[in-house]
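The instructor's notes for this session suggest beginning with a concrete chain rather than abstract definitions. Hand out the sequence below and ask the class to guess, before any prediction is shown, which regions might be ordered.
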Amino acid sequence: MTTPMVTLYERIGGEAGVAALLDQFYARVLDDPELAGFFQDASLDKLLRMQKEFFGAALGGPQSYGGLDLSWVHSGRGITAHHFNVYAQHLLATLESLGLAADDVRETVHRISVHKNDITGEAY
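After discussion, reveal the predicted structure:
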């Protein structure tokens, strides 16, 4: 008998865990003067709703990301590799503060970071 594989989404705590992660993560992001300007005209409710879909899908949850193409949404916003790296550092710090296993922290950052070029508009 094989044991069903537990997804990263489940290890993070499922829907409630992702919601808690995003609340803490975006509190850090929105408090960062280098990143806050990118979100000044955004609806925080809509942003968090879309991020729950995006993170849920990326982490192996039951969600499907129904948002617009990442490269299109972020095009022309001036988001550089530096900005993305600052964003990723906030994600890393948030994940570590939640007491997750080191492997789960690394895997989560990796699964989000694979979209860096779409967000920054840099060539692959």
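Then share the key points. The radius of gyration is 15 Å. The domain at 14-120 is CATH 1.10.490.10 (Globin-like).
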